[in-house]
């Protein structure tokens, strides 16, 4: 997993609530490998695979965006991990919203995406600025846990210390567990000496 410290990038204003996991990763694609086209596929493309001109993620002004700003309940719905995996595959490392689906929130953190919860007033101000200035950058600073933009912020956000450290160091759950390989091996050796019939 690529470490995440500071993101200074174009942000996309997805000015909607209830963007669910079926929109983020439509179910009919789940048996395929995750590709950049998966994210919001049915919103971004028509039946012939051509981009919908009016959809914000297809606007050239937001090319190269790494941040999405939405309203409440982002990632609600089924627990499909592909919905979180689709974000970094399409180049996004951060989503800012007023609230998230619980499972989706955890899946983001485990897959190198930073989900940031900010209050309604702050999210509204960010969306208004991003709509007014297409292509505007936001700066997400994980070490200081702040979000800022031109004339906006910094706005503080909360994150669990353990998950913050994993993002900073680029550790997924497997890599984090591997750090304790020697301690686990020592525990198992002692355990089986004490209870040899379990070996």
Give a structural overview.
By secondary structure, the protein is of the alpha/beta class. It has a single domain (6-198), classed as Aconitase, domain 4, CATH 3.20.19. It contains eight helices and seven strands. It has helices at 21-24, 41-44, 82-89, 102-110, 120-132, 161-169, 173-178, 181-194, and strands spanning 6-13, 67-69, 94-97, 114-117, 137-141, 146-149, 152-156. The protein has a seven-stranded mixed beta sheet. Helix 3 links the parallel strand 2 and strand 3 (94-97). The protein is globular. The two termini are 35 Å apart.
Number of helices: 8
Largest sheet, order of strands side by side?
4-3-2-1-5-6-7
CATH-defined superfamily: Aconitase, domain 4
And the CATH topology?
A: Aconitase, domain 4
Helix vs. strand class: alpha/beta
The helicity comes to 25-40%
Distance between the termini: 35 Å
- The H/E string reads EHHEHEHEHEEEHHH
Low-pLDDT runs of 5+ residues are none
Number of strands: 7
Q: Main beta sheet, described?
A: 7 strands, mixed
> What is the highest CATH level, the class?
Alpha Beta
Strand content: 15-25%
Mean pLDDT across the residues is 92
Rg computed from alpha carbons, rounded to a whole number of angstroms: 19 Å
Keywords, please?
199 residues; alpha/beta; Aconitase, domain 4; seven-stranded mixed beta sheet; 8 helices; 7 strands; globular
What's the topology here?
Blueprint: E1 6-13, H1 21-24, H2 41-44, E2 67-69, H3 82-89, E3 94-97, H4 102-110, E4 114-117, H5 120-132, E5 137-141, E6 146-149, E7 152-156, H6 161-169, H7 173-178, H8 181-194
């Amino acid at each position: 997993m690529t470490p995440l410290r500071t993101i200074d990038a174009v942000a996309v204003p997805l000015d909607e609530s209830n963007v669910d996991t079926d929109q983020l990763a439509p179910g009919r694609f789940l048996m395929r490998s995750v590709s950049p086209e998966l994210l919001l596929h049915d919103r971004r493309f028509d039946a012939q695979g051509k981009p919908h001109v009016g959809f914000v993620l297809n606007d050239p002004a937001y090319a190269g965006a790494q941040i999405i700003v939405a309203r409440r309940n982002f990632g609600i719905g089924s627990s499909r991990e592909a919905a979180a995996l689709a974000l970094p595959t399409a180049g996004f490392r951060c989503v800012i919203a007023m609230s998230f689906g619980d499972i989706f929130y955890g899946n983001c953190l485990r897959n190198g995406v930073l989900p940031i919860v900010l209050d309604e007033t702050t999210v509204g101000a960010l969306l208004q600025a991003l709509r007014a200035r297409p292509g505007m950058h936001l700066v997400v600073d994980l070490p200081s846990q702040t979000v800022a933009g031109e004339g906006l912020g910094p706005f503080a956000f909360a994150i669990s210390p353990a998950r913050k450290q994993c993002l900073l160091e680029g550790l997924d759950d497997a890599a984090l567990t591997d750090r304790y390989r020697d301690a686990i091996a020592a525990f198992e050796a002692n355990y089986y000496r004490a209870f040899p019939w379990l070996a």
